[in-house]
Amino acid sequence: MSYVKILSQVVDQLGLKPPEIAYEKRTNRTFHAVIEVHLASWTSRGFRGSREFTGTSTISARKAIRKAARGVVQRLERSGLVQINDFNGQDLKLWKKRVMEIAKICKKVAEERDELEREFTFLQNNCARLLIENGKMEEKIARLKKKLSGAEATEEENGNLMAENNELKAEIRDLKKQLSEPQNGGL
């Protein structure tokens, strides 16, 4: 069994996005192949490796692609997603259970991350709202303090005016008494 077939079986059985395979013939009569894996899909299943795998051959593009596929399969095996007992095609055993456990863990982590992001956004919005309300309250307090200081000054003035008013009332009473006394005495 070739590495390309192993790679296609792994992609099919694990439900991964298929990799992009490209090759070119260079001027020095060598073939250069590049296999680029879809990291978002592959890492969610537990893949740990680089994005691109290359292979070169002086014989054919197919040989270069096989070399690149060999690199991908070996990386999958090192990541623990595949166990290949016989590279000739006798036995290909996928660790599907482990892959599904890793996928579940990744999903839980993603859900927890999303929940934390929602809570952070909520708290950030509340913080902004509370800061705005705090500013408004500080403005109100400043205005009330200003009014209170003005009211204290007005109370002093009112006290002075009332004292002056009482003095004037006392003088008016005295004058009325003085006016009323001569009239009573002259009769």
UniProtKB/TrEMBL annotation:
Keyword vocabulary terms for this entry: Coiled coil
Domain of life where this protein originates: Eukaryota
Coiled coil: 99-178
Keyword Coiled coil: yes
Name of the protein described by the UniProt record: Uncharacterized protein
Upper classification of the organism: Eukaryota, Viridiplantae, Streptophyta, Embryophyta, Tracheophyta
